[in-house]
Amino acid sequence: MGSSAKRGCGGGGEVCRQSRTSAIIFRRSLDQGASFGPRTTLANPTSNGYFTIVRLAISSNIIHVLYPLTTYYNQSTNSFESRILYQRSFDNGATFETARILTVAPGWVGDVKLAISERRVFIVELDSTGVFLKTSTDAGATWSASLSIAVPGSGGFPSDPQIALSGNNTYIAWETGGCEDIIEQGTQCQIFFQRSTSGGMAWTKPVILSDTGAEMLLAASSNNVYLAWVELQGNMNVQLFFKASMNKGATFENKMALGGPGWNQLESIGTSKDNVYVVWTAASSPADAGLYVRHGTAT
Asked: Of 186, 187, 284, 285, whose CB is crowded by the most CB atoms within 10 A?
């Protein structure tokens, strides 16, 4: 458990340089996965940079692919910048547009999230200067300027951004504080939440959903919003918690414990209509972890 790689390769120059030979490869199946077509190379290896993250999403028969490229401009001092590259396909992946640069950030890109609802596309980016949101309302043809969501402050550095969409509602959550590794370092952080009910045109003020959480996941369906996270409650006792909103994130119910005492690691959260599913591993210690699934229905 832990997220030591959340902030990218900023502190691991040798690891980054060893990874710079990676390429972005795409394959498609037109027969429900029975067979796959030839490989398509979307991005070739580069001699002075590396790819660390790839995101893919599909809506309205358009395939969207997003990936950061971090490039060294002074390898002797391990100085670099990152570019968010974006490509689309309008023919089920037979061909892709030429990659476009959506943003250029100093230093590393720790994470990017891609979320799509019909022709609205959202990108949440974590880089060395904070968390930012970029929006398109025309299926990725044009993009808004980056909107600052969270920046470093006295409370610590923002991390682990999440985004969830449901209809015209957009929800973003992130963490702030020392939450690099809850097990090894015993660190925890605040979980912030922000919402828009206008397709990302206007946003409410951020609210704190947990003062002692870490490694959270966010999901949404209909008018419901769900958040799951873990908290350190003693030596090797990491508890799993869950919180729900039934009114588009205006208010949340009290938190509910899902996992028992011991070591719990959140793995995934998903929704289908009014049903929500949470998957986690649990054990008396990390070495003995087993997989658990819990299903709930929104009422």
From this structure: 187
